[in-house]
Amino acid sequence: MLIGHENTAVELIGITKYFPGTIANYKVNLTVRKGEVLALLGENGAGKSTLMKVLYGMYMPDEGEIRVDGKKVDIRSPQDALALGIGMIHQHFTLVPVHTVVENVLLSAFNTPKGKLPVSEAAKEIEEIGRKYGLEVDPYALVNQLTVGMQQRVEILKALYAGARILIMDEPTAVLTPQNAQKLFEFVQDFRQAGNSVVFITHKLNEVMEIADRIVVMRGGKVTGELPREAASENELARMMVGKDLDEITVTNVSEGDSFGNIVLSIRNLRVKSARGHMAVDGLSLDIREGEIFGIAGVSGNGQEELAEALCGLRKIDGGEILLESKNIVGKKVMEIIKEGIGYIPADRHREGLVLDMSLEENLILRKFESESFSARGVLIQENIRRYAERAIDEYAIKTPSSKVKVRGLSGGNQQKVVVAREMDIATTALVAVQPTRGLDLGAIDYVHRTLLKAKAEGKAILLISTELSEILALSDRVGVIYRGKIVKVFNRQEAKVDEIGLAMMGVSNDEAQ
Amino acid sequence: MIVEGILKGAVMMSTPLLIGALAEVFVERTGVMNIAIEGIFLIGAWAGFVGAYLTKSIGVGLVCSVVAGLVTGAIYGYFTVYLKQHQIVTGTAFNILSVGLTLYLYRVFFGVPLLPLTVEPLSSINIPLLSKIPVLGEALFNQNILTYLAFLFVGVGYWVLYHTRLGLVIRSTGANPEAVDAAGINVEKVRYWAVLFSSAMNGLAGAFYSLGFLGLFTENIIGGRGWIAFAICFLGNWNPLGVLAGALVFGLADAVAVSIQTSAFKAIPNEFIIALPYILTIVATIARKHFNVPAYLGTPYVKERR
Ligand SMILES: Nc1ncnc2c1ncn2[C@@H]1O[C@H](COP(=O)(O)OP(=O)(O)O)[C@@H](O)[C@H]1O
Ligand SMILES: [Mg+2]
């Protein structure tokens, strides 16, 4: 089908982008029309962000051409893109946390005058744009004092202030509650109605069905499908995304009703301060029984990280009790907690889970090198470590040339398997898993999920903390919603409803909502 | 009389510290530590003296010190900003090198003279009427040109940093270079220019020691004062006004120490007065809760890296 130029806003033609060892985009063609919401759908690593960063001038393509309004353009920096009316909301916010909203907006506006900053004029305009699109935010607030949802508004305002007509949003709902996501969708609709275009990047099928006019699917750096929404079904999209049917690989938790064992981990009135000094976990209580997965749902920043760190001895506890098999473990050192058998899969495997420049074997014994089989009088027993590593590589199907390679060279999924292997071995009684599948492809996600279910079958108590509600619902026996450092509501899985959980995530109690 | 003399000395001695520390504020706000500051002070002192001695013109000497600072900064910046070398290691190498290099080049030019060679130091510019104000008049309005420039620089620097687009870019680059990159501003360029600027200012600050009042050059003429300027940046919480206060404290200690040394007053040991600002620095560092330290200070920025 031929499209008239008067209708196209942006054309990407034959875009190729290489990174060392990766082809992120290969000969990609993509058209964005005026007045449409284009969903760019694909798994993690499909090349969506890269493609859009090329359009936004953050990355230089190795090949290919970009046309805006039918004319060939040379976009060498985001300033060029903004001048052409292209704005982008990044997956990871690009805000200066210690500066105010106005300052952040002025920084990126390509038309900010060279000399004195027009602070009060800009503040007024920000308020105006905010009113027009329902994106109100105090222009003089410091960004680091805003919630994640508010920070996203600031990102959007940055683009709108600079005059964007084409707005690229990279996985914008990842950090939002279902209700805030709904608000964002409303904004997207308003913005489109005004004749603008939106490229909406996501890997969530339901979002695509909700807001897209047209859908482009990417896999492995290439476009694998394009279709209008009316012609799309979730199953078909999934097939394009993954290359196989989704239900083949989705796991569901087959729990046998209430047949759990004794309480293994009991948290009573826990209080933990965050790094910034406020009470991040504030009187939190929960119980987890033998062979139970307790899922914690919540918007990030409500005390999840602090809770996990406190359980693993990484953060000082300001009050309350943590009973592991009726023994209080508050105040114990990390090493002692490891000996008690609590494993920990941290949210950020690069920062907390692994030492990227150390070998696979070294990473596997990172938290248990003191054990007798791995060291004697401070000297590592290389032979035992190697044999142990080889067993783990076998058991967890870690794809690696040998046990001596640096983990930096492994793919994300295999890196996570290293963490999981180590922590499963430590977790003889309980396992704390935080965002255990973040950034993994569907195959690896499936593997991690199966491993968690195996741990459950072995009778371990598992605390699963995730901002992916679908993950929580797929695995948990009970779901607790965390809000401002407290568990505000607990659902049995059979009774859990997404909208009720969503309300609880925002701190709305049921009675208020009715 | 004594008080007036001490105050005048304090303002004078704080001048090069103020210039160096302000320059350091600007460069550190972009995320780069100019650790080579001590070496550039020395090179500036040397170049200023040589230029002034050979041409008999103090003006030429000052220009030479700025150019020498720029050249050193161009190399330091290339290594740290573009080649992403470790700033502390590179800077330390520069500092060690500068000691040998200036001494060597001094001897190449002048051999080993029996008495140190001298030039006529910068003269004071007396501002009529204002310099007659009791107590403070001499201190504030009868100083050389560099002192006036340094104080002007505080005000202008503050305004630029907090009220202009350039200042916003500078502050943002140290606080989150990715945001600057995403705004389409070249992070490396901002940082490189900041290193050049701070190095030029450091060269000038160094020339104050050789040309400002002594009119001669020796190998230990700086004697760690570059480090003091570096510390004042920290003490002043990366803020031009804080730096002004810090520089004045150190300048005052210097001046009091000198006047005690030359008087019969021996109740407080001279060394204690000299040590006082350092003790204050340590106390202030421990006591302070809120730091403005740029979040990405010392971290090289690589584009297109995750
Ligand atoms: N800055 C980078 N350096 C090296 N490799 C990268 C970089 N950005 C992305 N990649 C790689 O390019 C591929 C596509 O990544 P990306 O565009 O982020 O995918 P998506 O946004 O679809 O999840 C992945 O294999 C990723 O590892
Ligand atoms: Mg992405």
What does this entry show, briefly?
The complex is a heterodimer of chains A (514) and B (306). With 514 residues, chain A is an alpha/beta fold.
Write the layout of secondary structure elements.
The complex is a heterodimer of chains A (514) and B (306).
Chain A (H helix, E strand, L loop, with lengths): L7 E12 L2 E12 L3 E6 L5 H8 L7 E6 L2 E3 L4 H6 L2 E4 L11 H8 L10 H15 L14 H14 L4 E5 L7 H16 L3 E6 L2 H7 L2 E6 L2 E7 L5 H9 L20 E11 L5 E11 L3 E5 L6 H8 L5 E8 L2 E2 L5 H7 L1 E4 L3 H5 L6 H5 L10 E2 L2 E2 L1 H14 L16 H15 L3 E5 L7 H16 L3 E5 L3 H7 L2 E6 L2 E7 L5 H8 L4 H4 L1
Parallel strand pairs in A: 3-8, 3-9, 6-7, 7-8, 13-20, 13-21, 16-19, 19-20
Antiparallel strand pairs in A: 1-2, 1-4, 4-5, 9-10, 11-12, 11-14, 14-15, 17-18, 21-22
Helix pairs in contact in A: 3-4, 3-5, 14-15
Chain B lengths: L1 H28 L7 H19 L2 H25 L4 H24 L14 E2 L10 H5 E2 L1 H19 L1 H11 L1 H6 L4 H28 L10 H11 L4 H22 L8 H18 L19
The structure holds adenosine-5'-diphosphate and magnesium ion (MG).
Can you describe what's shown?
The complex is a heterodimer of chains A (514) and B (306). Chain A has 514 residues and is of the alpha/beta class. Chain A contains 18 helices and 22 strands. Chain A has a 6-stranded mixed β-sheet, sandwiched between helices. A 6-stranded mixed β-sheet of chain A has the order 16-19-20-13-21-22, with helices on both faces. A 4-stranded antiparallel β-sheet of chain A has the order 2-1-4-5, with helices on one face. In chain A, a hairpin with a 2-residue loop joins strand 1 (8-19) and strand 2 (22-33). The longest helix of chain A has 16 residues, at 178-193. The N and C termini of chain A lie far apart (50 Å). Chain B has one domain (2-112, 142-287): ABC transporter involved in vitamin B12 uptake, BtuC, CATH 1.10.3470. In chain B, helix 1 crosses helix 7, helix 2 (37-55) packs across helix 9 and helix 10 crosses helix 11 (240-261). The relative contact order of chain B is 0.21. Chain B has a two-stranded antiparallel sheet. Chain B is globular. Chains A and B meet through helix 2 and helix 3 of A and helix 7 and helix 8 of B. The complex binds adenosine-5'-diphosphate (ADP) and magnesium ion.
